[in-house]
Amino acid sequence: MKPVLRGLAVAGLAAVAAFGASAPAVAAPYPNHPVTIIVPFGAGGSADVYARVLAQHLGQETGQSFVVENRPGAGAVIGTQYVAKSAPDGYTLLMMSNTQTVNESLLHNKPYALMRDFVAVAPVNEAPLVLVVRDNLPIQSVQELIKRAKEKPGQLNYASSGTGTPYHMAGELFKSMAGVDIVHIPYKSSGGARTDVLGGQVDMMFDAVSTMADLIQSKKVRALATTGTTRSNVLPGVPTMAEAGVPGYTATIWLGILAPKGTPKEVVDFLNEKITKIASQPDVASVWAKSGVTPMKMTPAQFTDYLNGDIDKWGKIVKSANIKVD
């Protein structure tokens, strides 16, 4: 090669190399490596179960692994904080419940704030609770319960799985809306609370429909009302709380997915689309329905509004009932 041509060739290669060094890298399509869904609750609970269902279907939808990791403790604070401090790239997600929205007003020294440190991705599903009383309590309806509670304030009691849990907050919401004084007895687990209602040591509790259905049908406890906006398909003969005499009452257990604040909008929208698609699948919805669970479908913006509304709703109850964590 002649010296002039050789010089031009070298210059051309240098120019290409320089352009390649300065050109922006093209981002690989999301997701291009495994995604972790953090569940801030123990294994075997509803959040864990549905996170694993979601992970399986997201893996099928995307061709990438979605892995569930349990990080329980401190009322869901440990796992939630872990995600809050994770990189906002869509590879670490949080499976949350209304425990987190209650915690916003219940726990004042959390190392994060839900709406400051997270972005709403998508809701997953919700399930109503059922109010049951011990079988030897001579109360047949919500109206009879309210009447007796007003006649004898502070004499009736209800169990829950702990302060600030959905079971507890459902009871406090009932007390507030019905204008009654019923004593709260917190337990360390829903199992302990349930055992003492069945044994007659405690008068009543709000519990998961799927857990209580068989006990209700075998008449070991008496169901007074469910807590959704419509009747549960698992307990169609049991009225909603609104039908039973407390208009406007709703208190469901719901689940959703959050991501660290700063996660790219295109990733959030992608996940929202996939999660909504999964929840809309007939085979998924039919399996969930057998447990009284209903899919929830919202855009990220709608879910953001829903979260803000839930924080406000339970914040008022925490304040009015002066609920504090021991």
> What number of structural domains do the residues give?
2
Question: What's the helix count?
Answer: 13
What is the residue-averaged pLDDT? 91
Number of strands: 10
Can you tell me about this structure?
- The protein has 326 residues and is an alpha/beta fold.
- The protein folds into two domains: 160 residues, D-Maltodextrin-Binding Protein, domain 2; 117 residues, 3-Layer(aba) Sandwich (D-Maltodextrin-Binding Protein, domain 2), CATH 3.40.190.10.
- The protein is built from 13 helices and ten strands.
- Strands 1, 2, 3, 4, 5, 6, 7, 8, 9 and 10 form a ten-stranded mixed sheet that branches.
- Strand 1, helix 2 and strand 2 form a beta-alpha-beta unit.
- Helix 4 packs across helix 13 and helix 7 crosses helix 13.
- The longest helix is centred in the last third of the chain and has 21 residues.
- The chain is globular.
- The N terminus is likely disordered.
In short:
This is MFS transporter. By secondary structure, the protein is of the alpha/beta class.
How are the elements arranged and paired?
Elements: H1 3-22, E1 35-39, H2 46-62, E2 66-70, H3 77-84, E3 92-97, H4 98-106, H5 114-117, E4 118-134, H6 142-151, E5 157-160, H7 166-178, E6 183-186, H8 190-198, E7 204-208, H9 209-217, E8 221-226, H10 241-244, E9 252-260, H11 265-280, H12 282-289, E10 294-295, H13 300-320
Parallel strand pairs: 1-2, 1-3, 5-6, 5-7
Antiparallel strand pairs: 3-9, 4-7, 4-8, 4-9, 4-10
Helix pairs in contact: 4-13, 7-13
